[in-house]
Automatic annotation (TrEMBL):
Annotated ranges, domain Glycosyl transferase family: 206-378
Name under which the protein is recorded: Glycosyltransferase involved in cell wall bisynthesis
Keyword Ion transport in annotation: no
Example GO BP: lipopolysaccharide biosynthetic process
GO molecular function: glycosyltransferase activity
């Protein structure tokens, strides 16, 4: 075999995330990386070590199969999360044992050239690095958060884990795929001798090619219950604009329990007349896309913190794909891609009055807002559609394979 063929990537394995193909930003990013490599002729395989779906929900998914061209396997042999404590832990152990066995099988069959790993647990990341050394394949870190800066991860055990992750664990990987300049600079400081490639947010723009059937005027915010301070910020900004009786605020909130969602809806109902704020949670992806498409503007205020400067939210790509204008703040990756009044509406400061001013602009200048949304979509297609990133990603992985 020639040296060129030895370093040609044909098989890429994804590790560390569970719940494929259904899930939030982490699963979506992994899926889109895999699809980007499929476009370049690679075989991609996702390995989940345990099920996370609820048995009360209908899930038409086998434990092994193919999804949108991507091979996948649940090594626990169960796509659901068992309800009993004993059953859950038995599944975890079985998943761990069989995960290693399947990696060993793939290596023996010549079906693993490199692995891309997404996880925030120091123990699991060390485990994957050990597997990679033992079985002799390079392992690349999907680096999307500065773990130690995440305010909601405040317990003592998580602070220890996250500090170890950001300062030490990342050194064990052969390379990294930071999502932002902040994370790229951090990785290059901590691990200056290893390669890295900034891989921005990814989106499948084709899934947003549907017609709008807007029946009422609304702003849309999509976020996690963990960002309660941002939810409050959006509510305050919305409360200060005019025409609330004509334009509602829709909020898609993920990650909360049923009780938390009910409490948040009660708070919204008590704070706003005529139920002008509407809460959504746990909705199908197709409905989510429709809500994006029919909004007059999509909201994502980023805070002037290390956490928000480091991350690049997945939903920004989906916001752009809708063709509707995005309203945000001038933090982190925003300044690297967007121009206020051209491809997005950008508040210079993280203050509710500055953010509300941009929301008011949408109401007062609907035609200009449409142009901004269209320009944002064009930018997104050029920069963030997964098809535009596959070649870069494959070339980088081949370079990692060559030096490992």
């Amino acid at each position: 075999m020639s040296r060129e063929n030895q370093h040609n990537i044909t098989n890429v394995v994804f590790l560390g995330e569970n719940g494929f193909p259904k899930g939030l930003a982490a699963i979506q990013r992994m899926t889109l990386m895999a699809k980007a490599l499929l476009v370049e002729g690679c075989k991609t395989t996702v390995i989940c070590r345990k099920g996370v779906g609820e048995q009360d929900h209908v899930v038409s998914l086998c434990t092994k199969g193919k999804y949108e061209g991507i091979d996948y396997l649940y090594t626990s042999k169960n796509v659901f999360k068992p309800k009993g404590f004993l059953d859950r832990n038995i599944q975890k152990l079985k998943g761990l044992f069989d995960e290693y066995g399947y990696l060993k099988y793939l290596k023996k069959q010549g079906e693993i050239d490199v692995a891309i790993v997404s996880n925030m647990s120091a123990i699991h990341m060390l485990r994957y690095c050990f597997y990679a050394r033992w079985l002799n394949f390079p392992v690349v870190l999907n680096f999307v958060e500065m773990a130690s800066s995440m305010q909601h991860r405040s317990s003592f055990s998580k602070r220890i884990n996250d500090s170890l992750f950001d300062r030490w664990i990342i050194k064990f990987f052969d390379a990294a795929l930071p999502i932002s300049n902040q994370l790229l600079d951090h990785y290059n400081r901590v691990v200056p001798t290893k390669p890295s490639l900034k891989l921005p947010i990814l989106c499948d723009f084709e899934k947003f090619n549907i017609q709008s059937n807007r029946q009422e005027s609304y702003f849309l915010y999509c976020g996690s219950i963990a960002y309660k301070d941002v939810i409050d910020f959006v509510l305050q900004a919305y409360n200060s604009i005019n025409q609330k009786e004509k334009t509602k605020l829709y909020m898609i909130i993920s990650g909360g329990s049923k009780d938390e969602s009910q409490f948040l809806q009660k708070q919204m109902n008590e704070g706003f007349e005529n139920q002008s704020v509407r809460l959504f949670s746990n909705i199908p992806y197709e409905e989510l896309v429709e809500l994006y498409i029919n909004a007059i503007a999509l909201l994502i205020p980023l805070r002037p913190t290390l956490q928000d400067a480091s991350r690049f939210p997945h939903k920004i790509g989906e916001y752009l794909a809708s063709g509707n204008p995005m309203i945000t703040t001038n933090v982190g990756e925003i300044k690297n891609y967007f121009e206020d009044g051209e491809t997005a509406l950008i508040a210079n400061t993280y203050k509710t009055d500055a953010f509300a001013e941009k929301m008011q602009y949408i109401l007062q200048h609907p035609e200009e807002a449409k142009v901004i949304g269209s320009n944002g979509k064009k930018l997104g297609l050029n920069e963030f559609d997964y098809r535009t990133q596959g070649g870069r990603l494959k070339t980088f992985l081949e370079e990692v394979l060559m030096i490992s």
